[in-house]
Amino acid sequence: MDKEYIKAKLKNLPNEPGSYQMKDKNGEIIYVGKAKNLHNRVNQYFVGAHDFKTTKMVSNIDDFDFIVTRSEKEALVLEINLIKKYRPKYNIQFIDDSSYPYIKLTKEKYPRLL
Q1: What is the rounded CA–CA span in Å between residue 80 and residue 34?
Q2: Residue 10 pLDDT
Q3: pLDDT tens string 52-94
Q4: Could you give the CA distance from residue 18 to residue 67 in angstroms, rounded to a whole number?
Q5: Strand pairing of 63-68 and 18-23?
Q6: Which residue from 69, 68, 59 is spatially nearest to 112, judged by alpha carbons?
Q7: Which of 9, 3, 21, 1 is nearest to 90 (CA)?
Q8: Residue 20 in contact with residue 38, Cβ under 8 Å?
Q9: pTM exceeds 0.85, yes or no
C-alpha cells in the first residue's frame, strides 16, 4: 500500500453519502461498504485500533473507489448490489438473498426510496 497515495485520496473524499469499494494489490474488490458520510467513514479504516478482521482487511487495502449517492438509503441499495456482483471476501452479509432488506417506494410520479 502506498500510504501517500491513500492519504491523498482520503483528503478528497466528499462529506456525502455513498458506497466505497476497498481493493487489494491486484485491483480486486475485497470489501464493499456504505456511509452517510464517505469522508468520515473511509478515514476511520486508516486511523485507530480495530478488531482482528478489520485489521487484516486494512492491511490488504491497496486502493479504494467510491460512488456518491443522493441518500444513505440509496447507498444501502448500491452496497447490496455491489456485494452481490463482486462477492468480496470480507463481506459475508447480503451474499445470499435471505438477508435482503425491505425497501419501500413512494407512489409519486417519480418514486423515491423510503
Answers
A1: 9
A2: 96
A3: 889 999 999 999 999 999 999 999 999 999 999 999 999 975 4
A4: 5
A5: antiparallel
A6: 69
A7: 21
A8: yes
A9: no
